[in-house]
């Protein structure tokens, strides 16, 4: 059987799409794909980022964090149809949440604006989603992945935090703090993002697991930032990630201890064990 998806009959197009988009010689998709790029003073990096984006994506949503350089002007020059959204809050988490709200595609892809991610990998993420996954999670440490931008401290911290999430939430991740991910838009209704900083990726990874969503890791290579300096601080942001893990673990356990034990209307109250034994004895004697 051929793996090429053929256009549906007239009048049966999927919601939100007017035609199938060729992705490769063996794959075509109908769901429109939105790419969200949070950026602040990334004018020098955007030409590299935009150059790697596939031409079949539906839209690019650039979330501008009050840049003081030509980030917005460069984005519009590179891609006239880019959707620029002004970030009103602060932090990467806030920027991503703002961008997600502006997306119109059925599939959403998160891409950093520093040039560390290869946009050509998007096809792997989308392929995983159309094959049945709900959340395609990038991993630098899965077989086939890699990184050029990982200090020893960050590597050890990421491994320790990843192990904690795997143990506490039953996940099987090989990477935790990586921002290259893709998911179906409906996932946002189940994970309810509510953080503003770099820990947003960890929060997403935890909540997709606790929500029972189907996750597939995608091997990804992280390159060095091309221009500028990262705002990431290993110790500070590592502690924020740890706080998220502890908070989510506490929230997950809370319903068990605080379960409502009030009687359910119409339910038969449970009898003490002694009364139950006496009732069984009476039934046996009667028979």
Automatic annotation (TrEMBL):
<feature type="compositionally biased region" description="Basic and acidic residues">
    <location>
        <begin position="252"/>
        <end position="262"/>
    </location>
</feature>
<protein>
    <recommendedName>
        <fullName>Glycosyltransferase 2-like domain-containing protein</fullName>
    </recommendedName>
</protein>
<dbReference type="InterPro" id="IPR029044">
    <property type="entry name" value="Nucleotide-diphossugar_trans"/>
</dbReference>
<feature type="region of interest" description="Disordered">
    <location>
        <begin position="1"/>
        <end position="20"/>
    </location>
</feature>
<feature type="domain" description="Glycosyltransferase 2-like">
    <location>
        <begin position="34"/>
        <end position="156"/>
    </location>
</feature>
<dbReference type="InterPro" id="IPR050256">
    <property type="entry name" value="Glycosyltransferase_2"/>
</dbReference>
<feature type="region of interest" description="Disordered">
    <location>
        <begin position="252"/>
        <end position="287"/>
    </location>
</feature>
<comment type="similarity">
    <text>Belongs to the glycosyltransferase 2 family.</text>
</comment>
<feature type="compositionally biased region" description="Low complexity">
    <location>
        <begin position="263"/>
        <end position="279"/>
    </location>
</feature>
<dbReference type="Pfam" id="PF00535">
    <property type="entry name" value="Glycos_transf_2"/>
</dbReference>
<dbReference type="InterPro" id="IPR001173">
    <property type="entry name" value="Glyco_trans_2-like"/>
</dbReference>
């Amino acid at each position: 059987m051929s793996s090429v998806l053929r256009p549906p009959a007239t009048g049966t197009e999927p919601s939100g799409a007017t035609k199938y988009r060729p992705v490769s010689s063996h794959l075509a998709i109908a769901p429109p794909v939105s790419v969200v790029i949070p950026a602040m003073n990334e004018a020098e990096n955007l030409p590299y980022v935009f150059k790697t984006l596939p031409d079949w994506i539906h839209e690019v949503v650039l979330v501008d964090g009050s840049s003081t350089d030509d980030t917005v002007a460069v984005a519009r020059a590179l891609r006239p149809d880019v959707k620029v959204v002004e970030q009103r809050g602060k932090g990467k988490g806030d920027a991503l949440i703002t961008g997600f709200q502006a997306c119109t595609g059925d599939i959403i892809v998160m891409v950093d604006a520093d040039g560390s991610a290869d946009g050509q990998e998007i096809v792997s993420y989308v392929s995983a989603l159309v094959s049945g996954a709900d959340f395609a999670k990038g991993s630098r440490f899965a077989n086939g992945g890699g990184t050029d931008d990982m200090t020893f401290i960050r590597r050890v911290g990421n491994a320790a935090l990843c192990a904690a999430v795997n143990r506490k939430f039953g996940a099987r991740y090989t990477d935790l703090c990586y921002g290259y991910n893709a998911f179906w838009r409906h996932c946002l209704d189940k994970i309810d993002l509510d953080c503003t900083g770099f820990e947003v990726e960890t929060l997403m990874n935890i909540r997709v697991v606790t929500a029972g969503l189907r996750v597939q890791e995608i091997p990804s290579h992280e390159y060095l930032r091309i221009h500028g300096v990262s705002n990431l601080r290993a110790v500070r942001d590592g502690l924020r990630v740890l706080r998220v893990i502890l908070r989510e673990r506490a929230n997950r356990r809370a319903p068990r201890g605080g379960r409502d034990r009030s009687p359910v209307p119409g339910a038969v109250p449970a009898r003490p064990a002694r009364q139950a034994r006496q009732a069984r004895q009476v039934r046996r004697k009667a028979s």
